[in-house]
């Protein structure tokens, strides 16, 4: 190849130099990446939203300081797209906290490391955690995640709304579906074409597994290999839950009203009487206690059709991604974050902070058995607010007996399958049977594919 | 299409091709030959950045993605050849059909509406005299709004219960639908939202309308043509090239719609937990498969299908509009 | 709305003219009101966001303060500015060089190559999304801001096409005269063609500024560390955290949307003449 003329070459060299400078210009990306090379320990999915979270993170900072590691908490809820592409790009965080139902899926794809060595090295006894939480964070008996939280679901009712409508929370139960539907119709309120009060919010799509269980259906076999999404009982449960929504003007109206709730504020749906009753995660008791301690709250357990209390438990789990830069420190980090000592210390800090602000402290459930005992008996004290004390009591009792959707290698795809099925029914695109049939096919093919890759 | 592929020669007409063909006119034939060679090398030097970019970021990757579409590559685990399994799955996966349908519905609603709306606005602009510049600015402002913010505005303004849109409709006694949650109304809602960003098309039409020679209208008027007739027989043919350009551009953009829908309905698990398939547009699904599930092999197959769909639609549009597009001095 | 003809109006009645002005004004309200609504909502307390009042009953500036405290907004804006500048500068320079190559020279394969340029212009970006990610992943740059601007080093088909049109419009004699004076090809480009086409270069630059500033797709794919986020990516994170399914703090989301939008609006007012001219050009030249 003949060389280009002298002049062009010189100019071209200048141009190359100019372009080479540009990376430096916008290169904060590159620079900060290089910085975070060896002394920074990053976490993903963790949010320091209250003292319980930040106090534990402080403990973890102290634990990693001797190793010369500085913890960088990348705030924000777990985002599966961000996580997987980080792992793929070899830029994985050192520790990640995610919904435990996702763990099996990522484990099956090799995106997470087994904790087997970690548990052995740090002498962590998984028997010290709630059994269902450990099972959720495992795949085929191998543990991949330790619990970072333990959420129970209970029934929260605004007794004032019920009394105003000539009934009371004492007569209100989710065990009798016929009565529940009738109550839902009575308690709702409409003005003009709008729904102004939700009588009873079944909380689907999120709580669909609980409705299925209430009707005696699991969504997947216990070994996590066979999807059972179109089990007739599951279809029946979905049909019923959607009927509750339709009884109140349909999904559009219900969702729109729900969206306009000031859920975390002093003018929340209980204060404004925009809601009669709904099943909800236990953390919301905490929120209500802080935002509106004076409401006429009537807490109860959610019941299956057999009339027995039913608690769908879930929560987050800490795991170590494949290609984490500091896997050993990550193990130490996870141990610290989930240890009895850390939890109790953090719960005390949160209780102190909550009480100082004048709100009732409603307790915490962590998934660490010893810590939960100490918090229940030593940290938490009856507050004198009967409604919230009762709620706390229920949560403590429920936490010992929860059920979980069995862990499976399709993880997020399995969850996505039933979620979007419920959404398709809610938005009127499909009947429950059609939607769950489609979800079943999708989930089963994802499960088969995941299993194929592993065997 | 034609005006794109063969741009009009520059205004100083004779200088175009002929001038170039002559090359440097000085020196002996031998010297001229080496000068010519130097010129060619210089030319390749100038266009080399594009050639490199084309190979590295377009042609190479597309070939790679063709290969990958026959594998289960996921950037994490090991990769296997899966034959045509991914392509077979395209036909079995109900969400492919659903997302393709959503996208086509969106495009079919959006493109004509956007073009008609923009044309009406441009014609109004033409008639308001000196203030046209000001209003043109106003119409263009939403284009500057990042699509993420547009997606957020959609969620807020179109909220079925408390949103502004239904509030306004309420004044007229209309009970607005649940735009953001009712699967039937989600796409119309997104289409209406997208009309807000129609400004660049307005500006293009405005410029095209202004360049229609005035004497053509005068001639039409002399022939006794009414308003509609002169619109139909003077305006439309005169701006048909521009209309065609915006048709293609808007269609391709609509078929790739992503950001507003993704912002409003997808992302983290909580945001996503409410999304039905009503807003699952093709590129959203492609993005999910590629970057949320890391099914890169399947995503590659999805991308090739999209490529074919857009190619076919563009060719059909080009063929059909060849009959309608009028070019000045067009001899074909 | 009723006026469909293009006749220059000299004899038209004032009533009709008034009607048209009203129509344009109405349209303007539709186009502007969302901005007003957004700004207003961003200053309201959480419970009033949806009250649809034009003027907030209580003006709560602290929303912005809270936003600022909760999120690294300055970092995001800084990131966006750098990425946007890098993207716009690189694409303007590289596209101009390539466009000049196609406009001035006659060389074997030119027309075929230019047809290829046009072809890639029609190529949907979504099609190359996955393969491009693989390239960056292979280069170990898939977790950085580099993929947000570096492809621009190689020119962009649309701008190459646009700029070539402008270069073709320059009188050939200018270049011939310079050649006779012994100027090299680079000089022809850098000293003659580029300065004469400055308006077109500015159009290219601000188009890319807008495209790059508002892009969400690439930041979604390539940015994971919140310290590297550009503003739109940050805004999506704000929505996920404070919006639907999050804390339902819509006033914070609105405030963030205002912060993201305002720089573009200002940029637009500063160079609006170039914007509108540039767009009009794409329409007529294309």
UniProtKB/TrEMBL annotation, chain A:
Pfam families cross-referenced by the UniProt entry: SBP_bac_1
InterPro entries the record matches: Bact_solute-bd_prot1, SBP
Chain spans, region Disordered: 429-455
Bias (Polar residues): 429-443
Residues in the signal sequence: 1-26
Gene3D superfamilies: Periplasmic binding protein-like II
Keywords per UniProt: Signal
PANTHER family attached to this UniProt entry: ARABINOSE-BINDING PROTEIN-RELATED, DIACETYLCHITOBIOSE BINDING PROTEIN DASA
Protein name: Extracellular solute-binding protein
UniProtKB/TrEMBL annotation, chain B:
Predominant location category: membrane
Spans annotated as Disordered: 1-33
Ranges annotated as spanning the membrane: 40-64, 104-126, 138-158, 189-208, 296-318
Keywords annotated in UniProt: Cell membrane, Membrane, Transmembrane, Transmembrane helix, Transport
Presence of the UniProt keyword Metal-binding in the record: no
Membrane topology reported for the UniProt record: Multi-pass membrane protein
InterPro entries according to UniProt: ABC_transporter_permease, MetI-like, MetI-like_sf
Superkingdom of the organism of origin: Bacteria
Pfam families: BPD_transp_1
All residue ranges annotated as the ABC transmembrane type-1 domain in the record: 100-317
CDD domains named in the record: TM_PBP2 (cd06261)
Subcellular compartments: Cell membrane
Family under the similarity heading: Belongs to the binding-protein-dependent transport system permease family.
Name by which UniProt lists this protein: Sugar ABC transporter permease
Gene source species: Streptomyces endophyticus
Taxon lineage: Bacteria, Bacillati, Actinomycetota, Actinomycetes, Kitasatosporales
Automatic annotation (TrEMBL), chain C:
Localization (cell): Cell membrane
Membrane spanning residue stretches: 21-40, 81-105, 112-136, 148-167, 188-207, 250-271
Protein keywords: Cell membrane, Membrane, Transmembrane, Transmembrane helix, Transport
Predominant location: membrane
Coiled coil: none
Gene3D superfamilies to which the protein is assigned, alphabetical: MetI-like (1.10.3720.10)
Residue intervals of the ABC transmembrane type-1 domain: 77-271
Record flagged with keyword Transmembrane helix: yes
InterPro entries: MetI-like (IPR000515), MetI-like_sf (IPR035906)
Assigned protein family: Belongs to the binding-protein-dependent transport system permease family.
The protein's name: Carbohydrate ABC transporter permease
Organism: Streptomyces endophyticus
Lineage: Bacteria, Bacillati, Actinomycetota, Actinomycetes, Kitasatosporales
């Amino acid at each position: 190849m003949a060389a280009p003329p002298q002049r062009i070459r010189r100019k071209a060299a200048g141009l190359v130099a100019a372009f080479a400078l540009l990376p430096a210009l916008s290169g904060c990306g590159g620079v900060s990446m290089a910085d975070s090379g060896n002394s920074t320990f990053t976490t993903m999915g963790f949010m320091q939203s209250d003292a319980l979270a930040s106090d534990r993170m402080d403990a973890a900072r102290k634990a990693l300081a001797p190793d010369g590691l500085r913890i960088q908490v990348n705030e924000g809820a777990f985002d599966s797209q961000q996580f997987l592409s980080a792992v793929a790009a070899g830029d994985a965080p050192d520790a990640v906290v995610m919904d435990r139902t996702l763990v099996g899926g990522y484990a099956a794809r090799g995106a997470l490391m087994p904790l087997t060595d970690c548990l052995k090295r740090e002498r962590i006894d998984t028997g010290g955690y709630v059994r269902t939480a450990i099972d959720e964070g495992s795949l085929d008996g191998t543990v991949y995640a330790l619990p970072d939280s333990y959420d129970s679901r209970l029934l929260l009712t605004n007794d004032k709304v019920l009394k105003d409508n000539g009934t009371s929370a004492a007569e209100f139960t989710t065990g009798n579906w016929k009565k529940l539907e009738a109550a839902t119709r009575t308690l709702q309120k409409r003005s003009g074409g709008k729904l102004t009060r939700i009588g009873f919010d079944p909380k689907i799509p999120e709580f669909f597994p609980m409705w299925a269980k209430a009707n005696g259906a699991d969504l997947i076999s216990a070994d996590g290999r066979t999807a059972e999404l179109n089990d007739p009982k599951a279809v029946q449960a979905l049909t019923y839950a959607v009927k509750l929504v339709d009884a109140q003007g349909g999904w559009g109206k219900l969702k729109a009203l729900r969206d306009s709730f000031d859920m975390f504020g002093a003018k929340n749906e209980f204060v404004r009487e925009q809601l009669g009753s709904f099943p909800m995660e236990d953390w919301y008791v905490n929120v209500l206690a802080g935002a509106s301690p004076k409401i006429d709250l009537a807490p109860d357990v959610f019941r299956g059709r057999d009339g027995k209390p039913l608690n769908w438990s879930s929560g987050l789990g800490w795991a170590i991604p494949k290609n984490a830069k500091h896997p050993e420190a990550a193990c130490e980090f996870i141990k610290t974050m989930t240890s009895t000592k850390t939890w109790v210390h953090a719960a005390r800090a949160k209780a102190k902070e909550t009480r100082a602000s004048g709100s009732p402290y409603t307790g915490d459930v962590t998934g660490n058995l010893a810590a939960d005992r100490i918090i229940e008996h030593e940290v938490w004290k009856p507050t004198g607010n009967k409604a919230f004390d009762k709620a706390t009591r229920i949560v403590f009792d429920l936490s010992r007996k929860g059920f979980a959707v069995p862990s499976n290698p399709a993880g997020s795809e399995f969850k996505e399958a039933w979620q979007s099925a419920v959404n398709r029914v809610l938005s009127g695109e499909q009947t429950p049977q059609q939607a769950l049939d489609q979800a079943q096919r999708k989930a089963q093919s994802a499960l088969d594919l995941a299993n194929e890759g592993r065997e | 299409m034609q005006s794109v592929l063969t741009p009009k020669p520059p205004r100083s007409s004779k200088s175009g091709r002929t001038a170039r063909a002559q090359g440097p006119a000085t020196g002996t034939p031998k010297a001229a030959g080496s000068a010519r060679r130097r010129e060619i090398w210089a030319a390749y030097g100038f266009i080399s950045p594009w050639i490199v970019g084309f190979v590295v970021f377009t042609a190479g990757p597309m070939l790679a993605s063709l290969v990958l579409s026959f594998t289960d590559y996921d950037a994490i685990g090991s990769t296997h050849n899966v034959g045509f399994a991914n392509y077979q799955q395209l036909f079995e996966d109900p969400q492919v059909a659903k997302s393709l349908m959503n996208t086509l519905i969106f495009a079919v609603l959006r493109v004509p509406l956007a073009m008609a709306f923009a044309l009406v606005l441009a014609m109004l602009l033409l008639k308001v005299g000196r203030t046209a510049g000001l209003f043109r600015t106003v119409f263009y402002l939403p284009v500057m709004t990042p699509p993420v913010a547009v997606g957020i505005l959609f969620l807020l303004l179109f909220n079925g219960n408390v949103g502004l849109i239904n509030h306004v409709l309420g004044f007229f006694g209309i009970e607005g639908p649940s735009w953001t949650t009712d699967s039937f109304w989600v796409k119309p809602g997104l289409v209406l939202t997208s009309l807000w960003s129609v400004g660049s098309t307005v500006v293009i039409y405005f410029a095209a309308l202004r360049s229609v020679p005035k004497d053509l209208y005068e001639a039409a008027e002399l022939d006794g043509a009414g308003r509609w007739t002169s619109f139909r027989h003077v305006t439309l043919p005169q701006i048909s090239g521009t209309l065609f350009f915006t048709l293609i551009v808007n269609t391709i953009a609509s078929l790739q719609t992503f950001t507003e829908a993704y912002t409003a309905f997808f992302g983290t698990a909580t945001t996503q937990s409410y999304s039905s398939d009503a807003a699952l547009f093709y590129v959203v699904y492609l993005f999910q498969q590629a970057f949320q599930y890391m099914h890169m092999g399947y995503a590659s197959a999805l991308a090739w299908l999209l490529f074919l769909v857009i190619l076919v639609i563009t060719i059909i549009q080009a063929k059909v509009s060849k009959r309608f597009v009028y070019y000045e001095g067009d001899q074909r | 709305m009723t006026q469909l003809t293009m006749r220059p109006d000299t004899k038209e009645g004032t009533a009709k003219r008034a009607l048209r002005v009203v129509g344009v004004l109405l349209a303007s309200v539709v186009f502007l009101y969302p901005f007003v609504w957004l700004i207003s909502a961003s200053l309201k307390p959480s419970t009033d966001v949806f009250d649809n009042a034009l003027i907030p009953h209580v003006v709560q500036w602290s929303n912005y303060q809270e936003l600022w405290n909760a999120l690294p907004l300055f970092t995001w804006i800084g990131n966006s500015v750098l990425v946007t500048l890098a993207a716009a500068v690189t694409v303007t320079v590289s596209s101009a060089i390539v466009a000049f190559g196609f406009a001035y020279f006659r060389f074997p394969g030119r027309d075929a190559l230019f047809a290829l340029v046009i072809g890639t212009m029609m190529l949907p970006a979504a099609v190359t999304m996955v393969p491009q990610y693989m390239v960056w992943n292979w280069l170990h740059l898939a977790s950085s801001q580099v993929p947000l601007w570096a492809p621009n080093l190689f020119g962009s088909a649309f701008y190459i096409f646009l700029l070539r049109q402008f270069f073709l419009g320059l009188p050939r004699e200018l270049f011939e005269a310079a050649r006779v004076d012994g100027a090299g090809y680079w000089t022809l480009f850098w000293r003659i063609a580029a300065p004469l086409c400055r308006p077109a270069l500015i159009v290219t630059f601000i188009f890319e500024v807008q495209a790059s500033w508002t892009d969400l797709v690439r930041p979604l794919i390539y940015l994971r560390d919140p310290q590297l986020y550009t503003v739109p990516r940050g805004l999506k994170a704000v929505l996920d955290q404070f919006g639907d399914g999050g804390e339902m703090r819509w006033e914070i989301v609105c405030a963030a949307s205002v912060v993201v939008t305002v720089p573009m609006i200002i940029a637009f007012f500063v160079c609006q003449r170039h914007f509108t001219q540039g767009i009009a050009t794409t329409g007529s030249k294309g």
